Amino acid sequence: MLTFVGLGLYDERSITVEGQDALGEADRAFAEFYTSRLVGTTVEELEAYHGVEIEVRDRAGVEQHPDEILDAAATDDVVFLTAGDTMISTTHVDLRMRAHERGIDTRVIHGVTAQSAAAGLTGLQNYRFGKAVTLPFPYAHGGDGVPPSVVESIEANRERGLHTLVYLDIKVGDVPGKPSDSDEFMTGDVAASLLTEWRDVLGVVVARAGSPDPVVAADRLSELSEREFGGPLHMLVLPGTLHHLEADALCDLCGAPRNLVEQSLA
């Protein structure tokens, strides 16, 4: 049996009770933290809190060479851990399909996602979000500024009046010019600065969703690019057309200027 368990958004306590039970009953536990990361804890703290040993796999160990995980799941109860919800990334869907091809039973135990947290913290209605995008570091896509594909997706959402959730790039242990164990997380101010070159519109930075001290701030992208939002992880939301309750939420909960928000009212 291969059970996929989402760890939630922040630390060792963010997992659901169902997920914690599955982890405690497993014969082996594998994890990956290159698609996302629990910034409020470490692997060692996860192990100590849950009383298990966790075998962390890098990208190649999950996507190219998953045999050790699958071989173990063929005979034992195995859990595969990820931050957030375990099925958000196509990497994990692929691993589940490989298990099915080998006749291995699978189970999914969901965790809180950044997507649902972004809607909840900003007050924007979840069903009014369009296609999400990931904003990469310029060096990661070999160009300058924002990739055309990202701009096209944002503009397509805006044409339909929909909000866009922008996931910000994470580089785990593969940052050019830095030690192999270095990590880099794009921050909200950097993302706002990059997107200002496209259009200086209303944006909302969400920092450390799921933590005891999340930060949510709404303003023009040019204004957000000048602010500090603290440690990772950060997201950016680009609102589309606003319902009046969403407009009130952005002003009251996120500090958005009223005159700016009113420009986006339906």
Task: Give the number of DSSP strands.
Answer: 12
Biggest sheet character: 5 strands, parallel
Rg calculated over all Cα atoms: 19 Å
Please give the domain count: 2
Net shape: elongated
Number of helical stretches of at least 4 residues: 12
Look at the structure and give the CATH class of the largest domain.
Answer: Alpha Beta
Structure classification: alpha/beta
Percent helix: 25-40%
- Residue runs with pLDDT of under 50 for 5 or more positions: 175-180
Order of helices and strands: EHEHEHHEHEHEHHEEEHEEHEHH
Q: What is the CATH-assigned architecture of the largest domain?
A: 2-Layer Sandwich
Percent of residues in β-strands: 15-25%
CATH evolutionary superfamily of the largest domain: Tetrapyrrole methylase, C-terminal domain
Q: CA-to-CA gap between the ends?
A: 49 Å
Mean of residue pLDDT?
A: 93
Q: What is CATH's topology name of the largest domain?
A: Methyltransferase, Cobalt-precorrin-4 Transmethylase, Domain 2
In spatial order, strands of the major sheet run 3-2-4-1-5
